[in-house]
Specification:
single chain; Rossmann fold; Elongation Factor Tu (Ef-tu), domain 3; six-stranded antiparallel barrel; 28% strand; eleven-stranded mixed sheet
Length: 503
């Protein structure tokens, strides 16, 4: 103990012997029981060449500038606790934060751990003085595979007092062409490293549904645009977007060649409205223009999907247009309803129009054999308005509409149909839809309902990090990423993703 603080001392050892000062000379000795009684500072330049090389080649000594701390009691096969050796005056201290990657050896394999928490504690010294310190908690990720850009599972846990280090960067040399091919799969990196996290299964990203969740202005739409861009590049999937904000109209051309996009206007679906005054009680459904709307949507979908007016015998998607953007608010659709002894026409709400588009698409996809390969993606932007939770519904018509849309999302997988669910209000979106999402990107979230729901997917430790996530950071997990456990990643920079003018 020096100045009433404990010193943690690592012993450089060789098999059953240790390095110790003996008669003013540094030697390896076998008697280790008295090592705690005396501590000496040794000038490495005064050692013999053999001793100097042994120390220089020691793993702990070589990586002393990356040394963080050591594993302590209370660790298990999923998470470890470690005691950092850095104090707040060390420039490396600022790297000890949520999401930081540290490494430790498990049976000789370099294993990644991600810091997910910390707590203060105290230790009683002599004369009842107390010394405070911090204990860090880190989730085991596995061993990073630089060739495949994957994280391989590592079993078991490190021994007590195993040293931990900040991750040093490993340079992997690849050709320019290979780098470009791989870059299109990259969705982000582990924080403060160059270790990439890639989309590994594009079909699952679509067919097994993906949720992109976070507060307003945190970058959900940018991430969605990037994923659509990568889907267009990597697959033949055609994308149908529901956009009630018109943001896709203005922003998506920054990510995708505008010639591949097709938009609504306020006059795209102009349908004559049948007057209710001339409809009998038995023909209520003939009032309004609902049937005409369904027929026009069907024709529009067939034209977009196949580039022709009829459904082909085999599924052969057109590549002339890849993204169809619908704004349901532009669609003036009415239906007949009986009110007492009168028949009237009422406007369809957003959820009803979304249901009709989904159902007409599903009817088209059912014309073809089932397929595990992704064919069509539905993107629900502002999903809390398009497929709301039952307790967020004010109009009774919404309830049946949401159930119908949820049924399409549930059953569409076998025909290559899937969805992106993008929302800032996790509490207000249909949980029957969210529960179908096998890949999750959770950006910053504040509300307790959202955190509670996400805890089922990413666990309590990571859900507690959601309110403090930095810009361009997300907790990611799921089938498309082939991640067994959730991880915090730093998403790609927007400027690296958007189309450049020269392209």
């Amino acid at each position: 103990m020096i100045h009433k603080k404990w010193l943690s001392i690592y012993i450089l050892h060789r098999e059953k012997s240790i390095l110790k000062l003996v008669n003013d000379k540094v030697e390896y000795v076998t008697q280790i029981q008295d090592v705690s009684k005396n501590v000496y500072r040794v000038n490495i330049n005064e050692l013999s060449q053999v001793q100097k090389e042994e120390i220089i080649n020691n793993h702990l000594f070589k990586n002393k500038d990356l040394f963080v701390g050591y594993v302590i009691e209370g660790s298990n096969i999923d998470k470890i606790k470690f005691l950092p050796i850095l104090d707040e005056h060390d420039e490396r201290y600022s790297r000890l934060t949520e999401g930081t990657i540290v490494v430790a050896a498990i049976n000789g394999r370099e294993t990644l751990f991600q810091i997910i928490g910390g707590q203060t504690s105290k230790e009683v010294l002599e004369n009842h003085n107390k010394s405070g310190y911090i204990v860090c908690v880190a989730q085991k990720l596995g061993q990073y595979n630089y060739e495949a850009n994957t994280i391989d599972s590592v079993k078991w846990l490190p021994n007590m007092y195993t040293p931990l280090f900040f991750k040093s960067e490993q340079q992997v040399h690849v050709s320019v062409t290979e780098r470009a091919d791989k870059e299109i799969n990259k969705i982000g990196v582990l924080p403060n490293t160059s270790m990439r996290i890639d989309i590994k299964d594009w079909d699952s990203l679509v067919t097994h549904n993906t949720a992109i969740l976070g507060i307003l202005g945190i970058g959900k739409s940018c991430l969605t645009f990037e994923l659509i861009q990568k889907i267009i590049h990597n697959t033949d999937v055609q994308v149908i977007c529901f956009d009630i904000t018109n943001e896709y109209h203005t922003q998506l051309p920054n990510y995708i060649n505008p010639s591949l996009l097709e938009y609504d206007t306020e006059h795209t679906f102009f349908i004559l409205n049948n007057s209710a005054d001339h409809v009998s009680d038995d023909d209520v459904n003939k009032a309004g223009n609902l049937e005409g709307y369904k027929e026009m949507i069907k024709k529009d979908l067939i034209k977009f999907l196949f580039g022709q007016n009829n459904i082909p015998d085999t599924f052969s998607p057109s590549q002339d247009k890849r993204v169809r953007i619908y704004n349901p608010d532009f669609h003036k659709v009415t239906k007949g309803e009986k009110l007492g002894y009168r028949i009237i026409t009422t406007q369809l709400v957003q959820t009803e129009k979304v249901r009709i588009i989904c159902e007409e698409l599903y009817k088209v996809m059912m014309k073809f054999p089932t397929s595990k390969k992704a064919r069509t993606l539905l993107v629900f932007e502002e999903a809390h308005s398009l497929i709301p939770e039952w307790n967020s519904i004010s109009n009774p018509a919404d309830s049946n509409a949401v159930n119908g849309t949820a049924k399409i999302i549930l059953q569409g997988r076998k025909y290559g149909l899937g969805s992106f669910v993008v929302t800032q209000r996790t509490a207000n979106i249909s949980k029957s839809v969210l529960n179908q999402c096998n890949t999750i990107f959770a950006l910053r979230v504040f509300d307790d309902t959202g955190k509670a729901f996400l805890e089922n997917y990413i666990g309590g430790d990571y859900s507690n990090l959601l309110p403090t996530l930095e810009e361009r950071h997300a907790i990611a997990v799921g089938k498309a990423l082939k991640l067994r456990l959730p991880i915090m990643i730093r998403l790609n920079d927007k400027n690296d993703v958007i189309l450049k003018e020269e392209k």
